[in-house]
Design goal:
- The chain is an alpha+beta fold.
- The chain has two helices and five strands, in the order E-E-H-E-H-E-E.
- Strands 1-2-3-5-4 form a five-stranded mixed β-sheet.
- A hairpin with a 2-residue loop joins strand 4 and strand 5.
- The longest helix has 15 residues.
- The chain is globular, with a radius of gyration of 13 Å.
- It starts with a strand and ends with a strand.
């Protein structure tokens, strides 16, 4: 988790190997990390960014109480190419 100093928000990122997918690992870990992050007095908002095609990732985010806020065009470089990302948030 990376805090945006003084802004009251932090971002979370994760990646899971192919052999460990579809077992609920991300949901359990993301929920625990999110509850901990939001328990910190200085954090009021958590953000995460998901490639729109990554159904497993956005489903895990939604299961953990994250809300899709919108599509960010050319948001991040992945594998040498600019990628669109859906932005999700979970509030205190």
């Amino acid at each position: 988790m990376a805090e945006n100093s003084g802004q009251g928000r932090a971002s979370i990122g994760y990646w899971i190997g192919p052999h460990h997918r579809n077992k609920g690992i991300v949901s359990v870990a993301l929920d625990a990390l999110s509850r901990w992050g939001l328990s910190l007095p200085e954090i009021h908002r958590l953000e995460l960014y998901v490639e729109p095609w990554n159904q497993g990732s956005w489903r895990a985010a939604e299961r953990c109480g994250y809300t899709r806020e919108g599509l960010l065009h050319s948001w991040q470089e992945v594998g040498g190419q600019r990628k669109d990302m859906d932005m999700y948030s979970r509030l205190k």
